[in-house]
Amino acid sequence: MSEPTLRDLLHALLADAPSADAVVRAREALAAHPLGEGLALDALFVHDVAGDAVDLLAVLDEARDEGLAEALAEAGGSVDVADGVMAALFGAAASPVADAVDAEAGRPGDLGRAHDPAALPVAEAVAAEAGRGPELAKAHDPEALPLAEALAAEAGTAALVEPVMARLGEEVPELPEGWASAFFDARLPDGLRVRAAERLATDADARAEIAAFAEVGRLLREAVPAEAGAAPAVWPAVAAAVGADVEPRVEGWDEGLLGRAVAAEAGEAAIVDRVMATVERGAQAPTPLPLPEPANVGGWSGLGLVLAAAAAALLVAVLPRVLGGADPGDPWTPRPLSEFATADELTVDRVQYGERASVFVEVPETQGAPVLIWVDDGADL
Amino acid sequence: MSPRAALLGLLLALPVLVVAPPAQAQPAPAPVMPTSVPARVDVTVRVIEASSKGTRVDPRLAAQAASLKSTPFTAFQLLDEQRFKLPDGRSAEVVLRDGRRVTLTLRGHDTRAARVHVAIHRGGPERVETDLTVARDRAYMYVLRTAEAGVSLLLEVDVAY
Fold first, then answer.
1. How far is B35 from chain A (nearest CA, A)?
2. In total, how many domains does chain B have?
């Protein structure tokens, strides 16, 4: 039997009640070890025998890491780090690391068998460990069982929501009717969404329903554009009707986007008229009627030009007489101002204005004061 | 006249005195309403700059000075005056100095009143429109906001026929 090393002797001091002989032997070993140089050996292992031993073991490990292993080996023999760690953790009586691993995992021969694919597949080994061999084997057949059920078979059904929410002091409501549709549309609240996910993991019918929703959506996206054809751009026509700026104000904005989106869903339709029938500007009615042509403006047509020339000639002929005396029938003769209408003499039948404009009627309280119609047409004057 | 003849005359006049009501009980004469209307209506549009700066009133506005001073403004300047003879359904247009246009349409008229449509616009779809019924031979007034603080344009519309 070889001489015990300094580490062995220090380990011996980790026992609950180390003997005085063990202390003496450890001191002697330290005196012969480079680690003991400069140490007051008599002061070691007096008040805290185990603590001093642990400190010295740590120093030994550190010294080895710093490249002093060779020197230590020359002085004290081999160093078993694992044993030192285990001893530090579990006491001197604890088994070395290798023994502990062996105890947990079996001898190398057993491990070799486990690592042989032909002898024992990993999945089967796990299943054997979990006690779910048949389910796991079934789960590995993709045609026999969907993935979610395979996962459930592997891990079991984990109902996490209720325990978690119970810890949080909150109650999770039951899934409402039609939850699958809401889940598909991402309209379920968070708590219900998690519950729905749990439900989907175990409910094949629900998963089939979700899959059907997805399939219907895909078919719609394919079929509707094929039926709808080209999509009209709605905004330019609406903008022109309401007097808004037709040009896009945001760089990169595609004004035809809305139209194409609508057509993609609903097909081509005469949307503008219906939009404009709904749009109300301010508090008043929508699209104004075309104004009549004023009698006092406008260009001359060919016939009109001839008539105008004739009228001019006639005017030149009669002008001296007209200027000679005022003609009461002449529209250019100054006429006296009419009185301003009182509130009884004026009725505002209708007012129409845009959303940027405002109009209000001020009825005077004093006699003779005019009725005032205040107009702010909102124009950038 | 003999007493006999005087008595006879009194007897003959008695029925008249009894039947005739006392003068003070006679009803007031009914107001004279025109029974016909001309085909065209005189529409006068006056454009007046109204300001709260100063107190000057254009002498050409003397006839309506008292009414103008009942507005919140103190100074008035006549900018334009245009007269039109409009039949029903016809329009006239006045262009204001800021580019706005006032299109005035006579919707109709009768012995008592005229129906007038006024649109204030810039030629586009944005416009302010009013439909009014104004008594015959009466005027009314718009107050139009301008960009200048304290200055408005008064639009006086006089409807006479």
1. 19
2. 1
Beta strands of chain B (E only): which ranges? Answer: 40-51, 75-87, 91-95, 101-109, 113-121, 127-135, 138-145, 151-160
**Rounded to a whole number, what is the largest CA-CA distance in chain A?**
156
The answer to whether B86 faces chain A, any CB pair under 8 Å, is yes
pLDDT tens digits for range B101-118: 999 999 999 999 999 999
Distance from CA of A235 to the nearest CA of B (A): 16
Biggest distance spanned by C-alpha atoms of chain B:
93
Three-state secondary structure of A316-337: HHHHHHHHHCCCCCCCCCCCCC
Residue B23 lies in a domain: no
pTM: predicted TM-score of the whole model, two decimal places? 0.39
What's the rounded Cα separation, in Å, for the pair A96 and A102?
10
Q: Is residue B94 part of a domain?
A: yes
B143 inside 8 A of chain A by CB: yes
Q: Is B107 on the interface with A (CB under 8 A)?
A: no
Measured between CA atoms, the residue of chain A closest to residue B95 is A297
In this structure, what DSSP letter does residue A294 have?
B
Asked if residue B143 belongs to a domain, the reply is yes
CB within 8 Å of chain A, chain B residues 22-81: 42, 44, 63-64, 66-67, 70-71
A296, A335, A348 ranked by CB distance to B84: nearest: A296
Domain that holds residue B70: 39-160
Residues A272-316 have pLDDT tens digits of: 555 555 544 433 344 455 666 676 654 444 444 444 455 444 444
